[in-house]
Every structure is written in structure tokens, then in C-alpha cells.
């Protein structure tokens, strides 16, 4: 296709006479390993520097270099930052995918593309605005360093977009200076490349699209942070001193960030390190080391994802039965097996809840945003020691690896809760010590640390049958009594874990239950539904075991309750059904999304609208499908 010197606005473009301000989605379609990440981050942070909220999503392949990558930026001054199904502005850099990428742009959208690409078939449209740019040629002529030509080509696209949308030069310079902190030469050559893109658009093209940016004040005091970074920082504030891990996507950056934080903050005045970080030979060894450290009295953790959790099953069961504290971060990805290592999911909820053979139930904390990634990391260490058990923190790839716009985490003020630990003086006063005796009736027993000098403080930690005194036993009555006590301890955990967050709306007959990273999509879906007359209440689950008093009350108030999840099998709904009455469970419907991409808010709107038939009032007897699923 011959490029149009002034751009090309299709005659069927439905938005050509409109002006859309601070409300659109940008997608940069590039190649993995091409150096686009810096350009993408600079673009997102530049818009944030103009006071406009941005929600980036990095969709990347599981290889090192060469496969398609999509960086999606939701720009919305109202703060709606969940992923949308539609793309408004596309930067088409990938020759292998540009035809399909262009076909996904909404009518009225914009396509900025390498002018050497030939537009044919579904990519040759008359309802979008095309801006052809000779990126390769511009880089060849304006970037002198051969090694930098490929990398800085991405910065040229930032310059083109800056001119198209009206991004302030000062906002870009501030973002770039912060991104490349202290690298003055790199800052200059990147700014020069951005100016090449700006200049080309001003001289060769003409703006014909409706999309504009205007400065606002919606991001004051906010920062960009990944969930894994926030979790790592929470581990530091939670007193973690032992890290045992094995690399796995998408959890590796959590342990790597934690290692860096500990190196900075866990070193005394003499330079001595007050921590240990061990990269184990596999995930089973990693959790074994973490449990050993927890048994010894250290606050320990490991981080992994679904495949690693599967390998940890035997040791986690040991931790549950022998009652040893540690914290396990499960940054969930798409499974089963290897699955899609770089795609997000909430597919480990059911397996983690009962991980290992036999009757096991594990405590899970479920952060819904960056601040909770931090606060729940801190809280997990307290709960692990209070309950003397492995505690899981369940995030996912979207929350863990993507950068989210957030207020800074709150500084923790509570002292550490080390749980029921007996000192030498305590045992002297008591005159005896039985490791697995339920003295207080809450299922939680007293323990001692290794090194307690009292002769009665020692006990044998075993994963085989044992009585209250920790002695080996195969007595069936003792075994049953021990399992019943562990169940009683799990009920105690209900009173200690984070409670669900509930937003009840008067007159709402529809209730929504969700958890984790879908929270932003739920917020926008609820507002969209409310605009059509469908009122909804919302309960965000933040932990397991459940607070069944609040959950049962929520079900009692609504005729239909939709459980929204990012997995195929409605795993959280299954856990809820185990504890709900038949009458309450009959109200439950599920909305499922499991393509590996973050959930778009439209999936929720479509699911509820379909079942509610756009009615303001729901008939309890109305026949509705049990499940609505949403793919890509």
C-alpha cells in the first residue's frame, strides 16, 4: 500500500468528528526481546506525569526473544484501569502479527504502523485512521550507534504518539530521567529518538483522529509498583530473614526483589548480614528449607507458581500435620502442567486449599491490589506463627508482574505476633510441656524454639502419627483426636484472617462475589450495569477459611449471586458450595474467564446482563444458564 503523506482517515470512520479526551486504550504490538519495555514504561509514566491514570498490562511470550509481545495501556481519567476488549490506538511493530492486530482495532480507532508493511485483507479497513511511519528508515538515518538502532526505534514510536495525543515534553523527560536514573548519555539519545518521532509526525502527517490527552490531577501522591515488588517489601516489614526459592515464572521477581531489599535493609553496622537467601535445587527442597527455618524460629518464606506448588505437596502436608510455620507465595499462572507460563489465572485456589494427601486445609490470603500485596505479606508471617502452619499468599501473574498505579502502602504499626511460644521460665512455672496438647481450646498448641535449655522443652517433630506429647502413636482414637483438633484450629483461623470487603447496595437483587486481581474489572462492570438499571452488591473475598457468617448474610440478601473467577472449573464457587446450605448454593451462578489474558470488565457485564436479561428485577424461578464464560 502506498503511504498517505498526510495520514489516512477512512470515509467510514464513525469517530472522525468526535473528540475523545483521556479515555482510550493503547496497544503496542512488538517482538519479545526488541527492547520495547523501556519505551512502553516511559510512555505509561509520561501520561501518569500529566495527572492521568494509566493501567498497563504486559502480554508477553514464554521464550527469550522473537515471539509476539503486546503492551496494553488503559488510559482513563475516572480511574477505570481494568483491561478492555477493544483497542483504540494500535502501534503495529510486529510484521508477524500486524494483519491480525489491525483487525482487532475498534471502528474509529488509530493504527500507527511501519510504512513498509503492506495492508491487505482484514487489515485494509476504511473505518480507522492510519498513520504510516518509516520507523526503520528513521532509525537508520538518525541514530548513529549501530547497537542502539533497534532499541531506539521503540522510542521513535513514543515520539509519534506524543505528537498524536499531545503528551507534554516535560512529562516525557521526567519519566525518562527517572527510568534511566543517572545514565545521562542514555537519557539524551532516547530523548533525541523521541524527538525524531515527534518531528516526523509534525512534518509529514496530519492528525485526523479523535483522541487527545489533557492534563489532570488524578495521580498526585501515587506510584507505579508491581505486586511482586510490594510482596517482597512486605516480607521485609514482616520480619522475614530466611528465603528459600527456585526460579519460576511469574514468581522469580518476588524472591529477586526480596534479596535486593534484604541486602539493603538486613545488614548491621558491622556489615554482617542478618538474613539468608538460598536458591534451592527445586521447589520441594525450597519449601523444605523454609519449613526447617520456621521450625527453628526464623520467619521464612518461599515463592513459586502452580507447578512449584504441585511439587511442594508432600512437604506442605508435613508442615500442616507437624504444625510448622512458613509463608508460601503462589503467583498463579495458567495451567495445568507447563500450561501458559506467562499468562495469568486463578487456577490454583482449589488445589492449594487442600494441598497434599489426606485431610488438609490451608490458610490462604488473597490480595486484591498492590497495597494488599504488601499488607498481606506482613500479615502472613504473623498468621503462620500464630497458627503454626504454612500460610499461602495467593496472587497471580497480572497482579504480580504488571505495574499498577497505586497509593503507597501503609506503614505497619502492629508488633510481630510470634504466637504461643514457651520460654524456659514458662516451662519451669508449668512443670510440664506437651507439644500437641490443646490447652486453650482453640486448636493451637504451645511450642518451644530449639535451644530452649529446659530439659522438658525438647520434642520430636514428626509427620507420622503422634500423641499430645509428640510421641509416636498409631492409636486410632489419638489420630482422630489430633485431626479434629487441627480442624478446630482451622475454625480459629476464620477469626484471624482478613475479613471480606462488602459493598451492599439498597434494593440490589444481584450479588457479586470475586477475589484477587479482578477487583478493578468488577468496579467498572458494576458502574456499567448500574447505568442500565441493574443494581449490584459486591463481596470481595480476601482469605480462606471463609467468614461464613458474612457470606451467608450476603446470600440471604440477594436472589442471585454471581461468583467471578479466572479459571475453568469455578474453583472458589466449589469451595463455597462445600460450606453453603443447598438453598444458598442454588442462588449461585458463575462467570468464568480463562484465556490467560487479564479479565476484561465486559465479560462481567455480558455475563450478568445475559442472565438478568437487562431486567431491573430478577425472577427467582427464571431459567438461567449455570455458567457464562468469556474468552478472547
Report on this structure:
- Helix 8 (252-265) links the parallel strand 11 (242-245) and strand 12.
- Helix 17 (519-531) crosses helix 21.
- The longest helix is centred in the N-terminal third of the chain and has 21 residues, at 184-204.
- The two termini are 29 Å apart.
- The chain is globular and about 90 Å long.
- It is of the alpha/beta class.
- It is built from 21 helices and 25 strands.
Secondary structure layout:
Layout: E1 8-9, E2 20-21, E3 23-31, H1 36-49, E4 54-59, E5 68-76, E6 87-92, H2 98-103, E7 105-114, E8 129-133, H3 135-142, H4 146-165, H5 169-179, H6 184-204, E9 211-212, E10 223-226, H7 227-237, E11 242-245, H8 252-265, E12 276-279, H9 283-295, E13 300-304, H10 306-311, H11 313-322, E14 326-334, E15 340-344, H12 349-353, E16 363-365, H13 370-387, E17 390-396, H14 397-401, E18 403-406, H15 424-430, H16 476-494, E19 501-503, E20 510-515, H17 519-531, E21 536-541, E22 543-544, H18 548-557, E23 560-565, H19 571-577, H20 582-585, E24 588-593, H21 601-612, E25 627-630
Parallel strand pairs: 2-9, 3-6, 6-7, 7-8, 11-12, 11-13, 13-14, 14-17, 16-17, 20-21, 20-23, 23-24, 24-25
Antiparallel strand pairs: 1-8, 3-5, 4-5, 10-18, 14-15, 16-22, 19-21
Helix pairs in contact: 1-4, 1-5, 3-4, 4-6, 5-6, 7-8, 7-13, 9-11, 17-21
Amino acid at each position: 500500500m502506498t503511504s498517505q503523506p498526510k495520514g489516512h482517515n477512512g470515509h467510514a470512520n464513525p469517530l472522525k468528528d468526535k473528540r475523545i479526551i483521556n479515555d482510550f486504550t493503547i496497544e503496542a504490538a512488538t517482538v519479545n526481546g526488541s527492547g520495547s519495555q523501556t519505551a512502553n514504561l516511559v510512555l505509561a509514566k509520561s501520561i501518569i506525569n500529566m495527572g492521568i491514570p494509566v493501567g498497563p498490562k504486559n502480554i508477553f511470550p514464554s521464550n527469550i526473544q522473537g515471539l509476539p509481545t503486546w503492551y496494553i495501556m488503559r488510559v482513563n481519567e475516572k480511574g477505570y484501569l481494568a483491561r478492555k476488549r477493544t483497542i483504540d490506538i494500535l502501534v503495529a511493530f510486529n510484521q508477524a502479527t500486524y494483519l491480525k492486530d489491525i483487525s482487532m482495532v475498534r471502528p474509529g480507532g488509530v493504527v500507527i504502523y511501519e510504512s513498509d508493511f503492506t495492508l491487505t485483507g482484514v487489515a485494509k479497513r476504511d473505518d480507522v485512521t492510519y498513520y504510516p511511519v518509516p520507523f526503520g528508515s528513521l532509525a537508520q538515518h538518525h541514530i548513529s550507534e549501530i547497537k542502539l538502532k533497534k532499541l531506539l526505534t521503540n522510542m521513535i514510536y513514543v515520539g509519534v504518539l506524543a505528537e498524536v495525543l499531545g503528551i507534554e515534553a516535560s512529562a516525557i523527560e521526567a519519566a525518562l530521567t527517572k527510568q534511566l536514573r543517572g545514565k545521562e548519555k542514555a537519557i539524551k539519545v532516547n530523548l533525541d529518538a523521541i524527538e525524531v518521532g515527534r518531528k516526523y509526525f509534525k512534518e509529514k502527517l496530519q492528525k485526523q483522529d479523535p483522541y487527545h490527552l489533557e492534563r489532570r490531577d488524578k495521580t498526585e501522591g501515587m506510584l507505579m509498583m508491581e505486586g511482586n515488588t510490594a510482596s517482597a517489601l512486605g516480607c521485609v516489614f514482616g520480619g522475614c530473614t530466611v528465603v528459600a526459592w527456585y526460579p519460576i515464572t511469574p514468581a522469580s521477581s518476588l524472591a529477586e526483589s526480596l534479596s535486593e531489599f534484604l541486602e539493603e535493609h538486613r545488614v548491621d553496622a558491622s556489615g554482617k548480614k542478618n538474613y539468608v537467601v538460598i536458591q534451592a535445587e527445586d521447589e520441594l527442597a525450597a519449601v523444605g528449607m523454609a519449613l526447617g527455618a520456621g521450625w527453628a524460629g526464623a520467619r521464612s518464606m518461599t515463592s513459586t507458581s502452580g507447578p512449584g506448588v504441585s511439587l511442594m505437596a508432600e512437604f506442605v502436608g508435613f508442615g500442616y500435620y507437624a504444625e510448622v510455620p512458613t509463608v508460601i507465595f503462589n503467583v498463579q499462572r495458567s495451567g495445568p502442567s507447563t500450561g501458559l507460563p506467562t499468562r495469568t489465572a486463578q487456577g490454583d485456589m482449589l488445589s492449594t486449599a487442600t494441598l497434599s494427601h489426606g485431610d488438609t486445609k490451608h490458610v490462604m490470603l488473597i490480595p486484591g491490589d498492590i497495597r494488599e500485596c504488601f499488607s498481606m505479606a506482613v500479615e502472613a508471617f504473623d498468621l503462620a506463627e500464630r497458627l503454626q502452619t504454612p500460610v499461602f499468599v495467593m496472587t497471580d501473574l497480572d497482579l504480580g508482574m504488571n505495574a499498577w498505579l497505586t497509593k503507597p502502602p501503609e506503614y505497619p504499626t502492629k508488633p510481630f505476633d510470634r504466637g504461643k511460644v514457651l520460654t524456659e521460665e514458662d516451662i519451669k512455672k508449668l512443670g510440664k510441656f506437651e507439644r500437641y496438647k490443646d490447652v486453650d481450646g482453640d486448636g493451637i498448641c504451645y511450642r518451644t524454639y530449639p535451644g530452649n535449655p529446659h530439659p522438658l522443652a525438647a520434642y520430636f517433630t514428626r509427620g507420622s502419627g503422634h500423641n499430645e506429647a509428640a510421641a509416636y502413636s498409631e492409636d486410632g482414637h489419638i489420630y482422630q483426636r489430633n485431626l479434629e483438633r487441627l480442624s478446630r484450629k482451622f475454625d480459629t483461623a476464620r477469626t484471624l484472617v482478613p475479613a471480606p470487603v462488602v459493598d451492599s447496595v439498597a434494593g440490589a437483587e444481584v450479588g457479586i462475589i470475586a477475589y484477587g486481581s479482578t477487583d478493578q474489572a468488577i468496579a467498572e462492570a458494576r458502574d456499567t450495569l448500574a447505568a442500565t438499571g441493574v443494581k449490584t452488591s459486591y463481596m470481595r473475598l480476601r482469605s480462606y477459611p471463609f467468614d461464613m457468617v458474612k457470606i451467608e448474610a450476603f446470600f440471604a440478601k440477594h436472589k442471585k449471586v454471581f461468583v467471578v473467577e479466572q479459571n475453568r472449573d469455578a474453583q472458589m464457587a466449589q469451595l463455597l458450595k462445600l460450606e453453603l446450605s443447598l438453598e444458598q448454593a442454588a442462588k449461585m451462578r458463575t462467570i468464568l474467564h480463562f484465556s490467560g489474558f487479564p479479565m476484561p470488565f465486559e465479560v462481567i457485564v455480558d455475563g450478568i446482563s445475559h442472565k438478568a436479561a437487562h431486567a431491573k428485577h430478577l425472577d427467582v424461578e427464571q431459567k438461567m444458564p449455570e455458567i457464562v464464560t468469556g474468552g478472547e
